[in-house]
Write a structure and sequence with these properties.
By secondary structure, the protein is mainly β. The protein is built from one helix and eleven strands, in the order ββββββαβββββ. Strand 6, helix 1 and strand 7 form a beta-alpha-beta unit.
């Protein structure tokens, strides 16, 4: 595996897809990753137990983590996902599926019960400081924790509760920096415990 600091668009997409006997993933130290770079990289690696220790990239491209660990049914813990310094280009106050980056990232990881995610801002609102809505809240992490373990722990930076008048934004949690993610499979799973700690 390359140890480059930057990964080009599509470079590792689907690299280990359907490698059902893969148990340990290689480390992925790149700090800048292009569009689709890790998309479906470990798709359906049903024996994968040891994910990369960390995903340290702070500059990321669209769809870069999409379906990365889809259906990795033996995986119990996520890599440590770094804080972002830049999000993918996102037209302000516009909902555009082309700008998603972590869609379905852990979907189907039925034993996944630990996620370490140290965003200081939510993907969905990083470049969209306008009114909060379901669409923007869900954008970059749509279904990323769908069909994971019923209970688990989500480790993150400081959180605070917030109150909104709109029905669609009830049960919103606020990341350090004032950005939001909704409880549920497109944010933090509803029955999971949230643990605030430093990265």
């Amino acid at each position: 595996m390359t140890q480059d600091a930057s990964i080009n668009d599509n470079s590792h997409s689907g690299m280990f897809a359907d490698c059902t006997h893969l148990v340990t993933a290689p480390e992925l130290p790149a700090t800048t990753i292009g569009a689709y770079s890790y998309e479906s990289m470990f798709y359906n690696c049903t024996s994968l137990v040891n994910a990369p220790t960390a995903l340290p990239a702070s500059n990321i491209g669209m769809y870069c983590y999409s379906s990365m660990f889809y259906n990795c049914t033996s995986l119990t813990a996520s890599p440590t996902i770094a804080s972002l310094t830049e999000s993918p280009a996102f037209p302000s106050n516009t909902y555009d599926e082309n700008y998603r980056c972590a869609d379905n990232m852990f979907e189907g990881c039925i034993n996944l019960s630990t996620v370490h995610c140290y965003f200081t801002r939510n993907y969905a609102l990083a470049s969209s400081p306008g009114p909060i809505s379901n669409k923007t809240v869900y954008l970059y992490t749509f279904r990323w924790l769908y069909n994971v373990a019923e209970t688990g722990t989500f480790y993150c930076k400081e959180l605070a509760t917030a109150t909104f008048t709109s029905e669609e934004t009830q049960s919103v949690m606020v990341f350090n920096g004032g950005y939001t993610t909704k409880r549920g499979y497109s944010g933090i799973p509803t029955n999971w415990t949230i643990s605030e700690q430093s990265a």
